Amino acid sequence: MNANLQYRPATATDLGDVVGFPQNIDELFFCYPKAIWPLNVGQLAAAIAERRESTVVETAGKVAGFANFYQWQHGEFCALGNLMVAPWARSQGVAQHMVEVMEQIARERYRAPLMKVSCFNANAGGLLLYTRIGYQTVGIVERRAPDGSRVALVQLEKRL
């Protein structure tokens, strides 16, 4: 893990920063498909309310990343959701660190032997990250993009 990055539970005061992470409608769709562009604090707060372990990663006191679990079954698996990285913090290992933090939380708090992630086919950065750190494709399902076009949601898993 990156020594310059610290993680902690997300707080209400973090939401104003996090809603600025998605830079366009496509990025928002990748990290939160049900959200409506532009992301706002109300939408993010609603997601946090129905999810678990909303977590931020900070560097130099600034929020650089955010993620949570959208599904969890104690002793079985956790499913990573809402993974977002601040534009200024991209290509610095924040996303990988965020995934590693969430894997650790899944193991320690949920005794989960498996982490699941889903990534849209157009999200090359996400697909490359997940496969580089050991996730394997287990399925592909059809979804609809905001414009109604067909997209593939790649389902991946990793043994923890």
TrEMBL record:
Q: Which PROSITE patterns match?
A: GNAT
Q: Which UniProt keywords apply?
A: Acyltransferase, Transferase
Which InterPro entries did the record assign? Acyl_CoA_acyltransferase (IPR016181), Bact_Acetyltransf (IPR050832), GNAT_dom (IPR000182)
**Record-level Gene Ontology MF annotations:** acyltransferase activity, transferring groups other than amino-acyl groups
Q: Which Pfam families match?
A: Acetyltransf_1
What CDD domains does the database record attribute to this sequence? NAT_SF
Q: Where is the signal peptide?
A: none
Q: Where is the N-acetyltransferase domain?
A: 5-160
How is this protein named in the record?
A: GNAT family N-acetyltransferase
Organism of origin is Pseudomonas sediminis
